[in-house]
Write a structure and sequence with these properties.
Helix content: 40-55%
Strand order of the largest sheet: 9-8-7-10-11
Structural class: alpha+beta
Distance between the termini: 54 Å
Largest sheet: 5 strands, mixed
Number of domains: 3
Number of helices: 13
Number of strands: 15
Shape: globular
């Protein structure tokens, strides 16, 4: 049946008939919640049920493939629906209360940001479990109403019309604005931590294979017919803990790097434009089997899954979008298929399709790095977000070209291994 009002009405009737609604699941878990009422309140029980329902809903609407159940060691958070019952904060006493448990909350006198933030209404509280340096640590998050207060050292642009064009890739980002032109590596400085993480992953795999030789076939793949219990040695468990700690550090440093970069981008302007990218598509393995003409071997079907996991370009865009929401603005996503920033040349107003290895555009004034030129064109798109404003591009060209040459000189003198995607 095609999409429309009639189909939606039929789906709603089927959900009601078979009890596949959030309300139905809340009612179903009431009896379960009573068994644990000494530890978990009714609203917290409902919240856990709603979290499970959201996972099922993704399958229903084709946004997921499979529902995954959390094991004991994977359930990391609990939260209420309001700050009126169960796990809640009392601002007058500066303490948390949870079914008879009282936890004092210490707020530093010199922490102005925390004091300003707590002037807003607390919607609900969340309890988080984090394993840090091999020990379980517990934190309380306050979910507050409204927008966070502005930090003293925040240097955001005040101009909502100042444009910033972003050409984001798998591991790099090109930035074009009237103030600055930059070509940067995403999550720069994590190479050493990523190398240590890979070493621990390989060590863990070797230990698991040594402990369970019967669980693998001769070709190294897992033998599904072997139903023996997996054996985990003490050294293997130790390695897994080291790997978990290293993964935590890498994730924390990556998020910190993305927040710093997002702050820098918003200091250049608040009209931020970027191409619409399907990062999930880059993670999927190639379906077509091909043979290399040079070696005669099968080409790898793997694509960019590891790079995307390490660099997290989608996370950076989410952070920028969230920060823009504080000003009532949004990240503007241009129509990639119509703009074709990597193919368009604004002087001739023609499209020239380039191969992936071609990293430079050639003009009378000189050569321009391909990613930076794409960011320049994205910055000069029209407000409809699917056409390039050629007149505006001509006006801003000289300023861009001067800053582009300075950035290329900077990259030539950077004392590190250059990324192949830059073309230097």
């Amino acid at each position: 049946m095609p999409k429309g009002k009639e189909r939606n009405q039929l789906l709603n009737k089927l959900k009601e008939q078979y009890g596949v609604r959030k309300f139905d699941l809340n009612r179903y878990v009431q009896e379960m919640g009573r068994k644990f009422k000494q530890n978990i309140g009714s609203q917290m029980t409902q919240n856990i049920a709603e979290r499970a329902f959201r996972a099922v809903e993704k399958i229903m609407y084709g946004n997921g493939k499979k529902v995954r159940f959390c094991s004991v060691d994977q359930f990391f958070s609990l939260e209420e629906k309001t700050n009126k019952t169960g796990f809640r904060y009392f601002p007058e006493n500066e303490r948390m209360e949870w079914l008879g448990l009282i936890l004092p909350v210490m707020i530093k006198d010199q922490d102005e940001y925390a004091h300003f933030a707590l002037q807003d209404k607390i919607k609900y509280c969340r309890l988080l479990k984090r394993r840090i340096r091999g020990k379980n640590r517990y934190f309380v998050q306050f979910v507050l109403e409204g927008f966070p207060p502005e930090k003293r050292n925040q240097n955001y642009s005040k101009d909502e019309n100042a444009r910033v064009g972003l050409d984001i890739g798998i591991s790099t980002i090109a930035i074009a604005s009237e103030k600055e032109v930059k070509l940067l590596e995403l999550a720069e400085g994590l190479s050493e931590e990523e190398r240590k993480k890979r070493i621990l992953q390989r060590k863990s795999d070797r230990q698991r294979r040594a402990n369970n030789p019967g669980k693998y076939k001769e070709n190294g793949t897992i033998n599904p017919s072997n139903r023996d219990k997996w054996i985990q040695s003490e050294n293997y468990k130790k390695t897994r803990k080291e790997l978990a700690e290293m993964s935590r550090k890498v994730a924390a440093k990556r998020k910190q790097a993305h927040n710093q970069l997002a702050n820098h981008i918003l200091s250049l302007g608040l009209d931020v434009r970027v191409e619409t990218m399907n990062f999930k598509g880059f993670q999927v393995k190639a379906k077509k089997t091909e043979v290399s003409e040079k070696t005669g071997r099968y080409k790898r079907k793997k694509r960019f899954g590891k790079s995307l996991a390490n660099r997290a370009p989608s996370l950076l865009l989410s952070i920028i979008d969230n920060k823009l929401n504080y000003f009532g603005l949004k990240l503007k996503r241009i129509d990639t298929a119509k703009v074709k920033a990597s193919q368009f040349e604004h002087f001739t107003q023609t499209y020239v399709k380039k191969k992936l290895w071609e990293r430079w555009n050639h003009f009378e004034q000189g050569n321009v790095q391909r990613d930076l030129y794409s960011a320049f064109l994205i910055m000069n798109t029209k407000d409809n977000l699917y056409e390039i404003d050629v007149g505006r591009a001509n006006e801003t060209w000289n300023n861009f070209f001067d800053k582009h040459d300075r950035e290329m000189e900077r990259l030539k003198h950077v004392n590190k291994k250059q990324l192949s995607s830059i073309g230097l």
